[in-house]
Specification:
Elements lengths: L11 H29 L5 H12 L2 H11 L3 H26 L1 H20 L11 H21 L7 H32 L2 H12 L51 E6 L6 E4 H5 L3 E9 L10 E10 H7 L13 E6 L4 E5 H4 L6 E6 L2 E2 L9 E3 L13 E7 L22 E6 L5 E2 L2 E10 L5 E8 L5 E2 L1 E2 L9 E9 L2 E11 L21 E7 L3
Parallel strand pairs: 1-10, 12-19
Antiparallel strand pairs: 1-2, 3-4, 4-7, 5-6, 5-10, 7-8, 7-9, 11-13, 13-17, 14-15, 14-18, 16-17, 18-19
Helix pairs in contact: 1-4, 1-6, 1-7, 2-4, 2-5, 4-5, 5-6, 6-7
């Protein structure tokens, strides 16, 4: 009977290489999964699926902190954090495989199963194929780790020279696997995902119809000639984006459908984009604001939207608002990524220009802003009205259903609060003495802005010059010409809306239904 040679006792170098092997196996696993998701759908990538699950389970206060700290980069920060955690776990699995080769490889499989589970249980998942990227990545990663750890745990027999040769073999194998995965991923990204390519082609081919009810021209004087003030119309590239989608949905316009169903709907309806665009098209200027916008914050923008009346579509389906005896008081819009937005039926159907929009500032909606179709309802914060990538509308009641944000501590109904912001001078700016333009924007959608006042330090309120009003659904620019004297000064602004209500002084946070309070900035006026 022949006894096999004993295994070589792992050295510190072996342990370092084992951890590196775990990292390489993890990297290759994610690369393969990412590659597979190009052909399934990008949202099925394990990092995206797990990240979405993390977002859904993150307390609202933590989300608010992330938005304040990282702004629109919060999703990238989350994904980076997930990758860092996976890196630590991969290194630990590599060390485990050094002593328990099969167990370490099995651990990679477990992570793959978790990723697959996260993918198929996402609200937007409608196929078991969403599990394929995670499972494929895990299979390749597990096999690679098993092979790499096997090189480091070969039977001893020829001493240190054999150990050095094994380590060289390990490094060559790990580097080759990493380079192959990187090359394959690079080629895939260069070629592009078929899913994304089809969506991009459908957007490029879309021709917007001429509106039967065009928006009036922006009146002269709506845009004040003041350096540093927000433009009256926010360019699409600069329009704020706050949502939970880690991967922006890419929807093929030819495949898009809108389902309308629920309480009070005579018969369920399915609407295609050509059918929607063949209706009476409406164009309106509307300012949108995010409930996460703190006093003086950036998450507000004004755009010219093109779409069709949502109220007309609902009435054709038999829907009546509660004031007319309708049984539903809530419209639940569902996005293709599973997000649910709850909107009061009464406000949608009270005569305001609530739209199903497919155009933004003269072009089809950008993907980041909801292509092919989104909701726009003036006067309500986005989280209760502005569903992007909309896929269905269900008529129900607030008592029967809580939309996504409500169980997370936000109010079920949230009309926009009257707010004003100083755009220039910027906080802690140093300005020359003499005439200084203090300017900004104020908004109270569907009520309009009647007056804006500015206060210097603890002095009296002084009425600002208002830009021309476009409509009560858009923000309004304002300007105060300040004779600045040397020293440090606090500038404060407040607005009065079209109902005569002035925004209150006391500051509140964004939860549960939007921030309020006066915006102030401190500036330094230099000596003459």
């Amino acid at each position: 009977m022949t006894l096999s040679a004993p295994r070589r006792a792992p050295t510190r170098t072996d342990r370092l290489l084992a951890a590196a092997g775990g990292l390489v196996a993890g990297y290759v696993s994610l690369a393969v999964a990412d590659l597979a998701s190009f052909w399934v759908r990008p949202e099925a990538s394990p990092v995206t699926a797990v990240g979405g699950a993390v977002v859904d389970r993150t307390p609202a206060a933590v989300k608010e902190w992330a938005i304040r700290q990282f702004g629109e980069s919060d999703k990238a920060v989350l994904q980076l954090g997930i990758l860092l955690v996976l890196g630590v776990l991969a290194a630990a699995v590599g060390l485990l495989a050094l002593r328990r080769r099969l167990l370490g490889s099995a651990a990679v499989g477990v992570f793959g199963l978790l990723g697959a589970l996260a993918a198929v249980t996402r609200p937007d998942s409608d196929s078991a194929l969403d599990a394929v990227p995670s499972l494929a990545g895990a299979a390749v990663g597990a096999a690679l780790l098993y092979a790499l750890s096997g090189i480091l745990t070969r039977r001893a027999g020829t001493g240190p020279a054999a150990a050095r040769a094994d380590r060289r073999t390990f490094l060559v194998a790990a580097a080759s696997a990493g380079l192959a995965a990187t090359g394959a991923a690079a080629v895939a990204r260069a070629v592009g995902s078929p899913v994304e390519a089809n969506a991009a082609a459908s957007r490029a081919a879309l021709r917007l119809p001429r509106p039967a009810s065009p928006a009036p021209p922006v009146p002269p004087g709506a845009q004040l000639r003041v350096p540093g003030i927000s433009p009256f119309v926010t360019p699409n590239r600069d329009f704020y984006r706050v949502d939970t989608a880690l991967v922006v949905p890419r929807v093929d316009a030819a495949r898009w459908r809108l389902r309308i169903h629920g309480s009070g709907v005579r018969e369920e309806r399915i609407v295609t984009l050509p059918q929607l665009m063949s209706r009476r098209v409406v164009e309106r200027d509307v300012t949108l604001a995010c409930v996460s916008n703190e006093v003086g914050g950036p998450y507000v923008g004004n755009a010219r939207w093109l779409g069709v009346s949502l109220a007309d579509l609902l009435r054709e389906a038999g829907v009546r608002p509660p004031s007319e005896g309708g049984p539903a008081d809530q419209l639940v819009a569902r996005s293709v990524d599973g997000m649910t937005i709850g909107t009061p039926v009464e406000q949608v159907m009270d005569g305001r220009d609530a739209l199903l929009a497919f155009g933004m500032n003269g072009e089809p909606l950008p993907f980041t802003h909801g292509f092919p179709v989104r909701m726009v309802v003036p006067g309500l914060y986005g989280y209760v009205s502005a569903c992007k990538w909309i896929a269905s509308i269900e008529l129900t009641t607030f008592a029967a259903y809580d939309a996504y944000w409500v169980p997370r501590g936000w109010a079920a109904q949230a009309p926009v609060k009257t707010e004003s912001r100083i755009d220039t001078p910027r906080p802690l700016a140093r300005v020359a003495p003499g005439a200084v333009a203090v300017a900004g924007v104020a908004w109270a959608q569907h009520r309009g802005i009647r007056r804006v006042e500015v206060r210097i330090d603890d002095g009296p309120w002084q009425e600002a010059e208002l830009g021309a009003e476009d409509s009560g659904d858009t923000w309004r620019q304002w300007l105060h010409r300040w004779p600045a004297a040397p020293g440090r000064h606090t500038l404060t602004v407040r607005a009065t809306d079209g109902t005569g209500a002035t925004q209150p002084e006391e500051r509140t946070g964004t939860m549960p239904n939007g921030a309020q309070g006066w915006h102030s900035v401190v500036v330094e006026v230099e000596d003459a």
